[in-house]
Amino acid sequence: MTRTDPHALARLHGEHAKALYGFLLGLTFGDRQRAEDLLQETLFRAWTHPEALESGHTSMRPWLYTVGRRLAIDARRARLVRPAEVGPDALEHSPAADDHTEQAVATLDVRRALRLLSPEHRAVLVQIYYHGASVCEAAEELGVPAGTVKSRTHYALRALRAAMPGYGPAVPGGRAAA
């Protein structure tokens, strides 16, 4: 085979491509695209190095297999050095990143609404919801009767609902709709 022979590469392809492709398919673990790429590169190497093919061997197949195997090894080593390749289905099966934006906005809205409350109402909500105190514990901490803690909690929540439209429907009477 010489570079000047226009049909030499076509003959080489016709004689060995199918078997070489099957061999390369096994080396690439069934990846057809990689096997085709390696086949083309192997045949390109044969075309660019005709002196290797004029060795007088009865078949070119051992030389082609050796070149293809070395190319497959080099390609695998190169892939292992790079970050993992991501296929089109990988994004569909990967977990979505946690987006805390809505939670941060809601926190800011609650803080803003709490500033609008009277100090007494705010103190009751802090005791009940932030410290987890019972009505009796909040009453003792604040120095007021338990009934006062209940009514302040009721009116404080009602004021918060009014100050935070869009965080749940409010109905007349101050109770949230189910």
TrEMBL record:
Q: Extract the Pfam families matched here.
A: Sigma70_r2, Sigma70_r4
Keyword Transcription appears in the UniProt entry: yes
- DNA repair keyword on record: no
Give the CDD domains listed for this entry: Sigma70_r4
Q: Which SUPFAM superfamilies match?
A: Sigma2 domain of RNA polymerase sigma factors, Sigma3 and sigma4 domains of RNA polymerase sigma factors
Query: Which superkingdom is the protein from?
Result: Bacteria
Question: Which parts of the sequence belong to the RNA polymerase sigma-70 region domain?
Answer: 15-79, 113-162
Family matches, as InterPro entries: RNA_pol_sigma-70-like (IPR039425), RNA_pol_sigma-70_dom (IPR014284), RNA_pol_sigma70_r2 (IPR007627), RNA_pol_sigma70_r4 (IPR007630), RNA_pol_sigma_r2 (IPR013325), RNA_pol_sigma_r3/r4-like (IPR013324), WH-like_DNA-bd_sf (IPR036388)
The alphabetical list of record keywords is: DNA-binding, Sigma factor, Transcription, Transcription regulation
Q: What family, per the record?
A: Belongs to the sigma-70 factor family. ECF subfamily.
**Which NCBIfam families does UniProt cross-reference here?**
PRK09645.1 (NF007227), sigma70-ECF (TIGR02937)
Q: What is this protein called?
A: RNA polymerase sigma factor SigL
**Organism the protein comes from:** Streptomyces nojiriensis
Source organism lineage? Bacteria, Bacillati, Actinomycetota, Actinomycetes, Kitasatosporales
